Amino acid sequence: MATTYSRGGFLGLDNIGVFDRSSTLPTGGNLEQSDGTAWMAFFASVMLQIAVELAMEDDAHYEAMALKYFEHFLWIASAMDNPSHTGIKLWDHYDGIYYDVLRFPDGNGVPLKVRSLVGLLPLAATTVLPANLRERLPRFFDEAQWFLERHPHTAAVLTVPLNVGAGGSRILSLVNPDKLRRILGYMLDETEFLSPYGIRSLSRYHADHPYVFSAGGQEYAVRYVPGDSDTGMFGGNSNWRGPIWMPMQLMLIRALVNQYAHLGNDFTVECPVGSGRQLNLLEVSEELARRLSRLFIRDKSGHRPSHGRHGRWNDEHWRDHVLFYEYFHADTGAGVGASHQTGWTGVIAFLIQGFKAVDAEKVLEKGMGAVTEVSADVARETDKPEAVEVAEEIQEQVAEKLVEQVLETVQQQVSQAIKDQGGPATNLQEKIQEIVMEKVADAVQKKAEEVQQADHRTEEKKEIL
After folding, report:
1. Residue range 221-252, pLDDT digits in tens
2. Can you tell me the distance from the alpha carbon of 146 to that of 292, in angstroms, rounded to the nearest whole number?
3. By the 8 A CB rule, do 216 and 26 touch?
4. Does a structural domain hold residue 230?
5. What torsion do the CA atoms of 236, 237, 243, 244 make, to the nearest 10 degrees?
6. Total domain count, the chain
7. Residue 433 is assigned to a structural domain of this protein
8. Could you give the CA distance from residue 159 to residue 356 in angstroms, rounded to a whole number?
9. 156: domain range?
10. Which pTM was predicted?
11. Which of the ends of the chain has fewer CB neighbours closer than 10 A, N or C?
12. What is the pLDDT of residues 296-333, one digit of tens each?
């Protein structure tokens, strides 16, 4: 059976685990990581989606690659949960969430029962495939069906693309509807993962119930820390034991939107848990996007939560200078870490734009692709910055002035031509065309020389580099 192991290997999420995952385990053995395994499943699913799209351009080579990544996905899924195998697995059937498993040198294992993004990340391995998959790629479909029939235990715990969903699309996902509902029972609970500002990286449950593991006479504890890290692990300047990290929010929202494309409006969950309010998965995604936007939107007092307690940012001259922090305090929304992490925190713009006017029918057809299209349309319609408008206005004024000068020159030369003829010229039209063409030719020649000079300067720079 294929699986993903770590003998101390950095897979991101820094200090989220019980142990420093960049170091040797104090117990020996291996750490079977739910997040590391889920990342590989996500990779396989995205490569499958790319291969399918290319194969639909009538390239048989990519159809074979699509089948390869489909099989890889299933083997990875089998490593995470296969009812035909006994022993400790990454999916905990009793708790209804994924955990890391510490595998000792003798082969025995124990789940590390920390409720964190490690247990939510398998949701991300959810990819939408086209409804006409069977008609367009019959070989892929038939061989995928044969493979699933040969491995029924694996197929039973997944969502596989054999059946068309509510909106006509197909999806491939590590989780089936039962697993999805159980995981969301944690994720949408405000006493667990759901914060006023998004999804916490560690459940708030661990504030009062820290997870403690003893090994070699030493205790290793994981407790809820919503802001700055309280340990020196990874330099102490990064914390995944509570705060909200924007890129992970996008991964989870993408998963929910893609699940909605398959399950449709009939699949609803309570959000927040205990509220009595039932939402479909698109509505849950919109709710998460709204909570994330609260980080940057002014409240009734004019304060932006992401600015924290910094008095300067409440000043009227500074309050609209929004900073894109690395991560955010899970309870207050205050920005933590690097303050110019636009590379991933800037994704909030995509989420705000994407859910501004999303069409549920298109989401049922395309999944997250529909949200991406809306975001792109809104971005194109957004008012241009003042500097761009001023530049365009100046450009128009310069163009108008240039036209006036050309016309004035042409009029002068035409008048001179009429004067030279001693009266109305019989070939006046030809003369006007000749003058205009000369002016156009001069302008084109001048522009060509400018371009050549620019190319020459570029080549000089290349030689220097």
Report:
1. 999 999 988 877 665 678 999 999 999 999 99
2. 43
3. yes
4. no
5. -150
6. 2
7. yes
8. 29
9. 5-222
10. 0.80
11. C
12. 998 888 889 999 988 777 778 888 888 999 999 999 99
